[in-house]
Amino acid sequence: MTALRGRLPEPAVGAGGVAPETAGSPDADCPGADCPGADCPGADCPGVDRPGADGPGADGPGVDRPGASRTGDAKRRTGDGKHRTGDGPWRRGRFVAVAAVLLALTMLGHTRVPHGFGNPGSLLETFLPWLGAAVPALLVLAAVRRSATAALAVLLPAVVWCSLFGGTVMDKRSGGGDVTVVSHNVHDRNPDPGGTARALVASGADLVALEELSPSTAPDYGRVLDRSYPHHAVLGTVGLWSKYPLRDVRPIPIMPWTRALRATAETPKGPLAVYTAHLASVRVHPGGGFATATRDEAAEKFAAAVRAERLPRLVVVGDFNGTTDDTALRPLTGQLRSAQQEAGDGFGFTWPASFPVARIDQILVKGVTPASSWTLPRTGSDHLPVAATLSL
Q1: What is the tens place of the pLDDT at every residue in 327-351?
Q2: CA nearest 234: which of 242, 198, 302, 361?
Q3: pTM for the full model?
Q4: Does residue 204 come out as left (phi exceeding 0), alpha (psi in the -120 to 50 range) or beta?
Q5: CB–CB of 98/147 below 8 Å?
Q6: What pLDDT was estimated at residue 86?
């Protein structure tokens, strides 16, 4: 206040050298003063230090008020001043997280899905690999929801899918091999039997097994295949053409009409038992679901014939109308190994030929080692041909 007073005009001196004290005087030093130079706690002038201004009751722009700041922050956090629990990244996306867990449990427990009424088990296992398509969809939903919980939960079905099919998608093909086998459901109404037969000959196969032959089309295939495969046999709706001599050819009774056969191929490395079959078709009925009873019965009969085989080396091919994941076919597939799973590149889907979504045409082996497995280009059939090279 000394510097401030130095700038103010000196007060007039009255008689006796005493300055008069008036309420309106610029230098009045009393609680009622309201001039710019007032030096008392009650002064109410701009630019003057007032201890009370920093107190809780102060009100004005630019003034630091700790109590008011805390109250304002709390209101900004809660919006209307009411307490909220929040909707953070660990609380959002619970529906997506639950869906991811259920997806993982479905894949892990697919063998426990019942095969009773409607047969949901076989239907699920026929298209089991496609459940993996839900993983990226769930991941997108987790990102949209910005949910850490959902993103973490989606890792579970991703890990389960990789544990089930990670090895299948790898390319396991190798060179070498002693015998190449081709199997093809040619479709009984194939519009170009001759062209299909020529495509199979061009594959270079040593053994060609055909399913779904008909009395009218079998001769058309024979006219082309017989020139390259001097040893052949056609029984009912299945046939086998071979570059090697065939013996012990016989039908296997799995249905009222012949849809399976067994033969011994005398290869340069020794005898090889060859089985080919076309198991009964499956149907989807609105009232009955996925009907597989006839197929499953035929599979059990076919499995019994394979189980009774005495030769140590055998190959089993054909259209099984089911995948190797289908537990209903376990009596057959459980005693054999899949050439595609051991030596293929990817799933090798075969049906429908226009856009394959399931591998229902198989090459299974026992006592031999698959070197490579693949599918051939589309023919006039609704199935893709399958091929495998085997080391005997």
Answers
A1: 999 999 999 999 999 999 999 999 9
A2: 242
A3: 0.77
A4: left
A5: no
A6: 53
Per-residue model confidence (pLDDT) at position 91 = 82
Nearest to 339 by CA among 385, 386, 388: 388
Query: What is the structure's pLDDT at 32?
Result: 44
Please list, residue by residue across 259-273, b when 16 or more beta carbons sit within 10 angstroms of its beta carbon and e when fewer do.
bbbbbbbebeeebbb
The segments of the chain whose pLDDT lies below 50 read 1-72, 74-85
Query: Distances from the Cα of 295 to the Cαs of 11, 254, 369, in angstroms?
Result: 121, 9, 28
Residue listed under structure tokens 């959002």: 92
313, 273 in Cβ contact below 8 A? yes
pLDDT score, position 50: 47
Return all residues near 274 (Cβ < 8 A) that are at least 6 apart.
Answer: 181, 207, 209, 240, 242, 262, 263, 264, 265, 314, 315, 317
**What pLDDT score does 392 carry?**
96
